[in-house]
Amino acid sequence: MEKEEIFTKGRGAQINVANKFSALSHEFRDDFLNYCEMEGDEVANSKTSIIDTFPKTIINKVISPDIGMEYSLNPYQGCEHGCIYCYARNSHEYWGYSAGIDFEQKILVKRNSVALLEKKLQSSRWKAVPIVLSGNTDCYQPVEKKLEITRQLLKTFFKYKHPVGIITKNSLLLRDLDILRELAKDNLVQVHLSITSLNEDTRRLLEPRTATIKKRLETLKKLSEAGVPVSVMMAPIIPGINSHEILPLVKAISEKGALGVGYTMVRLNGAIGGIFSDWIQKAMPDRAEKVLHQIAECHGGNLNDSEFGRRMKGSGNIAEQVSQQFKIARKMYLSGRSTPKLNCELHQQYKNGQMQLF
């Protein structure tokens, strides 16, 4: 009789995987597991750990030619949202942790983020160019509610009249609507809200600790009504899971005021291939093989494609069908809308800062 796979609710990854950068590795042996069961001990603690860090720099140059940003800023590394497909999981290995459960449980906080940003914006050599919050991990993940580092960063961008982009899937963003309104008056902010599905059951499985779809649509509407430019990222498209939702989702976001929509095809690079494969066998065993096969079909027979210019959109029949659906959806529901270009002209006048309004 086969052992039943246990699905852990509230987490995306179901396993920790070996860190390829570590000379050390560990495993849970059967005799240790048996001992824990006899003693009534938990094998692993599911509580999230907050780890303080103090980096020397905070602004990252984005070298990838197929990502729509030049610079990013991530106040947190690791992400409690637990999105199973997240490409940022691999970056946790650089810190000595696993791309699996560690990525969701061990959150590194860059405590000196605000001071580093201010130093950068005051530099005579720095020329204003949009900096994107959350190019790697979400700046509005749960720990932000307590620490408010992202809020302080936004205040700093406003103080120096510097353009900023935000990528998030958390409605906590609305807490900072006061600052976003002020930034928007000078065309200094764009928000890219991540909405991958209209199905709440799908959301719970793919993105277990994120805001509900209802909350995200409400956030989209409130931002739009407040005059904050907002578009939606339907990323990633996963064949067999959310690929059938393109038209209804674009229709829904258009009704809430979105100015545009973007997408990427899922690609399971590095450790994410094993993490995702393990997850889908436990979360969706009835369609696991079909989904994995379709993902591979989009990347030349592999779960990942690292070729610039092709890796984000995929190739083959399924990828082409997705591309055509987005073209139709934009024409039907978003025709005539566009996101205004961010203003890079004001910052030079505010190199020494200004009086804060908050």
Automatic annotation (TrEMBL):
<keyword id="KW-0479">Metal-binding</keyword>
<feature type="domain" description="Radical SAM core">
    <location>
        <begin position="65"/>
        <end position="302"/>
    </location>
</feature>
<dbReference type="GO" id="GO:0046872">
    <property type="term" value="F:metal ion binding"/>
</dbReference>
<keyword id="KW-0408">Iron</keyword>
<dbReference type="InterPro" id="IPR006638">
    <property type="entry name" value="Elp3/MiaA/NifB-like_rSAM"/>
</dbReference>
<dbReference type="GO" id="GO:0051536">
    <property type="term" value="F:iron-sulfur cluster binding"/>
</dbReference>
<dbReference type="InterPro" id="IPR007197">
    <property type="entry name" value="rSAM"/>
</dbReference>
<dbReference type="Pfam" id="PF04055">
    <property type="entry name" value="Radical_SAM"/>
</dbReference>
<keyword id="KW-0411">Iron-sulfur</keyword>
<dbReference type="InterPro" id="IPR040086">
    <property type="entry name" value="MJ0683-like"/>
</dbReference>
<dbReference type="GO" id="GO:0016829">
    <property type="term" value="F:lyase activity"/>
</dbReference>
<protein>
    <submittedName>
        <fullName>DNA repair photolyase</fullName>
    </submittedName>
</protein>
<keyword id="KW-0456">Lyase</keyword>
<dbReference type="InterPro" id="IPR058240">
    <property type="entry name" value="rSAM_sf"/>
</dbReference>
